[in-house]
Amino acid sequence: MIEFFRQLTFAQPLWLLGILAVPALWFLQKREGASSSLAFSSLAILGSLGQKPRMRPGGVAFILLTLTLVAGLVALARPQHRETFIARKASGIDILLTLDLSESMNIPDFLPPGARRPIPRIDAAKQVLKPFISNRPNDRMGLVVFSGQPFPRCPLTLDHNWLQTAVQDVQINDIAEQGTAIGSAIAAAATRLDARDSKSRIIVLITDGASNSGKLSPKQAAELAAELGIKIYTIAIGTEDGRVGRNIMAIPRQEFDVETLQEIARVTGGEFFRARDFRSLEATFDSIDQLEKSEARISSTVQATDFYPWVLGFATLCAFASLLAQALSLPPQP
């Protein structure tokens, strides 16, 4: 209710100055009433005058006349309720987040600031992606996850709450087929970016391993993306110690394929990043954020709803009620 009155305004506010005359009318009405009481020294004299005169409008009738005047002036001032609708338009940058869900992403070798225990790579990626998405509200963004095969989780959208939910909900076991199909993941992301009419199309590839499955090699997929004008930022996530020191659920141990990730970035005009700890992972996304500047495109529309017909109707009702009150105040005929 408070917000409603904050958005209430008047198209012709100068008419409201007329309300300042209302106290003067009250003063004049009281003054006239006082002078009429001295016209006769005795009420008995009135009986000899025959038909009694009409009484001046007073009491309820005068109050109603005052309300009529005030409401009429308010109606002339044209009260309006104005609402501003803000529409956010896409900046022209489309970003497809492509996240590795292979078993090795469960290796806990990332220690966030202030934490006592390291967290899995997948959780570190989720934490860092959250502010990255929030800081780019004008970019269309989507999510593709992959392990042995790719799977689209969220289409390109400006609804970043939906995307945030999709990112936080992904789990390692979401895809039954295990492995690391980097080429297929790039192809799936590129397909979803291909039909978009945007000034910049980007894939952010987050992985911790070498490609070992899929029908398309990473290099072939990168060349395809380059032909479509898609830029790929590749991120190798995880520590060498975490990789060498553990064997997650009997997944064959494999080293980072840094050369392939660097080649993907080079072919597409992107960049390769190495994130060995939480701070370097944050710095990686800060760098991407700076490399791909997003422009805010916001339009606002003001919708005004007039309330003067309602106020004018109220003034009319008060006027009729005042006339009725005056009629009822007449003395009976002799």
Automatic annotation (TrEMBL):
The keyword Membrane applies. NCBIfam families: two_anch. Gene3D superfamilies: von Willebrand factor, type A domain (3.40.50.410). This is VWA domain-containing protein. Signal peptide: none annotated. InterPro entries: Double_TM_dom, UPF0353/GerABKA_families, VWF_A, vWFA_dom_sf. The lineage of its organism: Bacteria, Pseudomonadati, Verrucomicrobiota, Verrucomicrobiia, Verrucomicrobiales. Residues 94-288 form the VWFA domain. SMART domains: VWA (SM00327). The chain crosses the membrane at residues 12-28, 58-77, 307-328. It comes from the Bacteria. Keywords: Cell membrane, Membrane, Transmembrane, Transmembrane helix. The keyword Membrane applies.
